[in-house]
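so im writing up the methods section and need the GAF domain-containing protein record in one place, dumping it here so i stop losing it
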Amino acid sequence: MSYADLDAYSRRLRAAHDEALSEAGGAGGPGGPDPAARGRKPDPGEPHPAARGRGTGLGEGARWLISTSWRRSVEAGVDPEDGPAPLSLDLSHLGDVRDAHPLRPLLPMLTETLARMADESRHIVVVTDRDGRVLWRDGNLGVMRSADRIGLSEGHGWSEERMGTNGIGTALAVLRPVNVYSAEHLLRLLHVWSCSAAPIVDPDSGEVLGCVDVSGTAPSLHPATAALVGTVARLAESQLALRMYERDERLLRRYEELRGRPGILLSATGRVIAGDPGGALGPRVRLPADGERLLLRDGRTVALEPFCDGYLVRATTTAATTLPAAATTVPPTLRLGFLGEGVPTAAVGERRLPLSLRHAEILALLALHPRGLSAEQLSFHLYGDAGNPVTIRAEIHRLRAQLRGTIGAKPYRLTSPVEADFLELRHLLAANAPAALARTYKGPLLPRSESPEIRRERDELEVQVRACLLLHGSPDDLWTYAQTANGRDDLQILERLAESLPFTDHRAAAARARLYTC
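--- predicted struct ---
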């Protein structure tokens, strides 16, 4: 459909909408539609109110997307008289969810491309996750205040199952750019709004990551906005594809270093990268949730082995002879950095990932319980009696997608060798090695965590590290500890430094200055 067709469609739709509202006003008075009709769910086969005007000439192709969306919404139990969008995300966890979302690195590109246009034309830009939950919002302040009244703000859910036909929910449902204008919304509350939205699909995994949306009041939103929003979504996907190719190139170089290039090389998401010239596996393999065996379409069972940031697939019958000794696969080591005030990180092979606080807490608990934990046990350790195992299972699912091959199930456990800075502290305490202890200790374990189990571990480590350094540490060790969050204002540590270091040492002077200000 050309720009001119979109423009003509917009004019016809506005005219039909005005006529429909005029007829409703005549039947039910100035206050709106006939009260007897309120609360009645629409017949999915019935024309949309915006299309009831005679002689509108609305094409069937333009109406099909909306009518089928209405049908899905009604079947899901959405009532046209429903209120604002519900809060679907604990706002206290919003920062963690944002930090862990794959679209976070692309946010400047997404918002800067559309935000100025949105502000000047009295619109807002919204970015959601795959479930239609609003994660970021920007644009005209006045429109954002209006959006607050309908729940078009951070943490609120806009799936079709919750809010009926709308740009965000419908775009995620049909996986294509969508323009929903005024009375095309199922909910009457939204009839003064129009929105253009487009989904963003990860070219690596093929999974929907979220949606970008531009919303505003009906008189000011042009249908061509859908084309612009769709272009921005494709631009985001191209950036994701570029990063995917860079990862593939690094993995391929490591694969080519293997003698004989044994097995078929897969990405972390199951894409075939090399070693399958006949195409026996197809373009992508569905990775098993657990275990080291993969069942192919022809019934063969092959071994699936971690390799750097991906996998090697090889026939089980030749497992002992295909790979040379130097290439025998060992599960990649999972390295965790959870000490101190910085962003917690996990590294698998060459891949280093920043983690949300919640994902870091889960990994810390699994590292502290090598035998594994059930969802109920994890929930209790994280939240106490108020925990919900369903929430934990969802978080584990997301975490396993990020750290493929490192987390097993039934019970949940770490299946890779683990190197964690907080576990290293335990070994150094047992070995009574104060110098190495001072170098390793960067600060408290996940200092923002409120998990009862992690708080207990954090407090125990802090007490033991401090006691070891006071009893056996040199002035150098004590000074290193004094640079951490808890050591900075520790009176006993500072007094020991001021006493043990030469009076002219700059560290003694700094310790005396801190004592003076404490």
